[in-house]
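so im writing up the methods section and need the Toluene tolerance protein Ttg2D record in one place, dumping it here so i stop losing it
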Amino acid sequence: MLKKMTLLFGLMASILFSLVAQAESYPSDPYALVDTAAKQTFARLKADQSQIKQNPDHLRVIIREELLPYIDTRFAAYKVLGNQIKETTPAQRDAFVQVFTEYMVSSYADALAHFDKQVVKVEPGKPATGSITAVSVSVKESGKPDLFLEFKLRKNNKTGEWKAFDMVAEGISLLSAKQSELGGLIRQNGIDAVIAQLQAHNAKPLALKS
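--- predicted struct ---
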């Protein structure tokens, strides 16, 4: 019995230490967050090129593991629903968040599919004073014009954590594009039909564009 209790307390201590370590390692400000997320994601894209070429769906794995932990997918999904959220049930909202999260994974994977040899630089910015801020990122590649990205972030009032909810590439907001694309469909066909449509879309394999 004593041996079992020792093992149990050891397991509990291990779990607690792991949770504390995760909390301490989470970036404390929006610029550190974007820097961490961008470096991890682009390094993984570069390292896994052979796997991506063999199986483009591996891009989704990279986005889920390296970028998704820093994205507020529920906030983004609710922004897409807009005023239509009043017409939904809690179960419908949860289902939409789930399929929209996978939809965003595919969208980010598609947007970042051809990044492998670039150098990423998070531009210095002013300290965030409100709950919403933006962080600029420049992507440099020899012989090509610089590409400019902007990540919009929101601070969670309860946890104090910053998370991204939108990426703007060359002036085009990914979230705004999805709002225009899906908002009208939700109004016309209802949220259940759009959830089914997104599920079908998410089930399709990714294909690398030439």
